[in-house]
User: Fold these one by one.
Assistant:
Number 1:
Amino acid sequence: MIRIAPALLLALVAPALAQSAASPAISVDTLKDVTRELSSDAYEGRAPTGPAEARTVSYIVRRMQAAGLRPGNHGAWTQAVPMVEITARDVQPFTLTGGRIPVTMAYGAEMVAATYRVTPQISLSNSPVVFVGYGITAPEKGWDDYAGIDVRGKTVVILVNDPDWRTMTREGPFEGRAMTWYGRWPYKFENAARHGAAAAIIVHDTEPAAYPWAVVQSSWTGAQHELDQPGGHLDQSSVIGWMQLAKARELFASAGQDFDRLSAAAAQRGFRAVPLGVQLSTGFGNTIRRSVSQNVIGVLPGTTTPDDYVLYTAHWDHLGHCQPVPGPHGVDGICNGALDNASGVAALIALAEAHSRAGPAQRSLLFMAVTAEESGLLGSRYYAEHPLYPLGRTVGGVNMDGLNVIGRARDFVVTGAGKSEIEDLALPFIRAQGRRVSPEPNPERGGYYRSDHFSFAKAGVPMLDGGSGEDLVAGGAAAGHAAAEDYVAHRYHKPQDEYDPRWDWAGAVEDLNVYYRLGRRLADTPGLWPNWYPAAEFRAVRDRSRTAAR
């Protein structure tokens, strides 16, 4: 249950409820048109810096302009995001020697490999392999999987998620079932690099990863993107990648170890890394292409306090061309990303239309379609590191990543609940629709760390990320859960994520009403600055930025 700040309720619940009757007209036609257009094959899956980026950006700009927004980058519609694309070629199998029998892992089917390093060739020869459990260094929790081991120049094998992911409650050193930042793959690769590992390989397991191997395969084969920064990321590991669970078991058996026993030991405080006595060899070439992608930004300037900003975000990118699958019209190799996240961009445009029709608010409203979310939140990260408007004057906002297209829900789920006061501000608008707030059904998936609000959170700006729960008006929780699981298993990050004219947009409209009213409340209440709860990891940076702004 979300904690409610009494001061916020006293000041805001009554006016919020009074305003709830004035429902904005969210255009379902806009939601359909934008989603259908951006997810058509003409946009080739909207890969950042890909052949269809210019078409994508141009379409979003036209829709923002038609919605009544002004260019958001001081007269321009876009913010340039310098990118480097690294495409591995001729990837050699993982060859592991020194055990009872050699173990080989084939690229794509059994392992994937890539690099952040901007270099034409990667070669790894006989790198000693060390099992480092969950690969976590968390001094505040008394946890260090790298204690007592030097992994410089070595290959580390890492378990996905957190040590307590099997706990069905939220209790535990790493918040129990809920994934923390320590459980996310970007953290694990970053931490391995900090410890000097030459290679970092995560063991894929569908339940704690929250997606099947096919998602890893489609996401980690082909072009990989990073921000183009000085130094070429040469401080990162030479090889990063994943291996199938079955191959990990085979590897550990060859090393004379029991994978399940060591995995259980790794979930306990005090675990110490285990050298496996085997060596890894692999290599590949890299095709390197530097380019510039674009964040698209529109603004509805405020009237009385235009230098305060309320933010709506959605990422426009998807995977582009990906692993082909048989389809009704032949083999389909385009990951169109209809739900993820053409629908979020459609929501951005529909909200811009609604706010524009209502007229300017007291504070300025920013509408931002960011690039390269699928590549590690790069577009939002770049904005957070190079803001066009001071983050200390950015009040907060809403991030949208996939709409509800399966019908109205009786509940609303806040991703990563319990972190900021912006959740309290949204609560009256949710309840005004007769809905309740439910816990995340799958907190182990780490949703809070997987979309663009996280980039802003790290910079101190509280953003709401949430939407319809699984308790559908038609069919109840069972139907909602089945639909969610079906999407993850059969469409997420696959060519099957395509626009469907049979979608039911009623639930999306209800969610957008919450987003609209929350944004309007933030924008029409000068002096209101939602903060993080005192124990939240982002409170200190918010306090610093607000102090500097004042």
Note: The chain is about 30% helix and 25% strand.
Number 2:
Amino acid sequence: MNQSTGAKVTIASLVIALGIIYGDIGTSPLYTFKAIIGKRTIEEVLVLGGVSCVFWTLFLQTTVKYVWLTLKADNQGEGGIFSLYSLVRRYGKKMVIPTMIGAAALLADGMITPAVSVTSAIEGLEMIDGIAHVPVVPIVIAVISLIFFLQRFGTQSVGKAFGPIMGIWFAVLLVLGISQIIHYPSVFKALNPYYAYELLSQYPQGFWLLGAVFLCTTGAEALYSDLGHCGRNNIRITWGFVKVCLIFNYLGQAAWLLHQGSPLLAERNPFFEMMPKWFLIPGILISTLAAIVASQALISGSFTLINEAISLNFWQRVAVKQPTESKGQIYIPSVNNILWVGCILVILYFQTSSRMEAAYGMAITVAMMMTTFLLSYFLVYKLKWNKIVITLLLLVFAVIEISFFIANIVKFREGGYITVFLSGIFFFVMYITYFGRKINNRYTEFVDLGKYANQIVELSSDLTIPKYTTHLIYLTKADRRDQIEEITIRSIFDKKPKRADVYWFFHINRTNHPYTLDYDVSELVDDKIIKIVVNIGFRIQPKTELYFEKIINDLIENEELNLHLKNNGSTKYNPTIDFKFIIMEKYLSVENEFALKEGLILKSYFFLKRFGQKDEDAFGLDRNDVAIEHIPLVYEPVKVLSLKKRV
């Protein structure tokens, strides 16, 4: 039974779900209504229409699309755009670019969300007498920097507090909303979709307000991305509670706006204005803690996203660390630094949450559209629903998301270009990495290993050749039992032949399932040529050397392949196994003449590769057990060499 459908529902699991999943969407009341009203005159059509749009957006986009429909697309209990891509990629070749676009947009959101959430919370200090002019930006930078600094230690201990913090936060949202609604219960009429229609069709430039309305659902992608952490049932149950709290708070803000007596909102935030004066300091503290939880969720989600991208060949290999024993909790230093610098630059550039809201939303709109595209394949090929039902559902989501996208376009000049720029950088890295590796692999020639078996056996027995090692292990991309790269054969025989007692060919097979970890052994020549295939899930970091030692010890212990009769290179001086891994590292040969497009891709690919993790580190190998061989890649050889002897 997979994790998502089989996860138990307990009080503890529900509290954990509150802490992990709802940070982003849960803190949206801090800025959504403020963005909707802006500098416009406060009137009933704007306020009631705004809250009506928020309600129906949460219902259609979050509840129907994500909580009900998208959560069905679980990959062995895991969610997120890469998990969805892994489920459907076999059904067509058109899903690579949408997946890259969606993932790049989510990474850009990882820079914007912490900035806007924490800034919105800290700005509440401006309402407290005596510290109204406190500089907000330095405080925000300090809080954000602390969050990123603590990532290296893991969040297992502090993460236990996230659930109770968010539970208190949602209780505050609910109570604040009710405190206003009980005085003006007529605000409930805003749940009638007519008010949303009236705003969009009759209010001047009402359609463009959808860009602000969209802020209420920006965390919906997290519901799916965090499927593996909490399970489908826990998400669906907690969402019922969260949605009620959010809607009541938005209704409360609408009630306050209609009866606060001023025609303009100015720089005030209706969320904090609803609070009693005595509750301001506790309210700001709770808001800040909730914003920190939201930031943590986006940062952890970005780590998971990049980890999956590496496994699926969408990202250059980088160092991935596991700071705690908690399953799935990882820390990627390079990504942490990139996000931290990006957040700080966003804060320094925009200064206020109101200006950040202009950049916020564009990226997530694009990510949601890409998810819808991939989801269509899942519904057609995996769930096999009626095509008419699928078409109607997708049409509804397409109209909603395209409308949001168009409305968000106006944000481009107001700061949305920052999000587009950041997404573009991430997309460029993914595009170059993925297609550069494909071109690279295209020029990898495979040969029949059986043709060289006798030569390898002869070399192994040739005592005139100095012994290189007892066990010689080549990492290979060949997934077939009888194939090997041509460059591997050249490595064994060319120049100084590598004599060994046993030749191992080690292939790592990345599976579509997140946590697969098993292996197969094939003996091509008795105790001489052995092929190993290790099947590893896309969320697991390889530890190849440990795998090899475990496999060879298993074979010896089980008396398989007669390896138990050998001493494996161990001596009375050193009982450890004598082995050496060979890694082939390609570089662009100077002999190439490139076509423009593929030449640019390859040059960019090898340039980015310099900043990535070394192969021995990526595969989990100790450097003293590894030999690196540099192989020139001749992609487009020079056709005419106009070199003549001087007469």
Note: Residues 280-311 form the longest helix (32 residues).
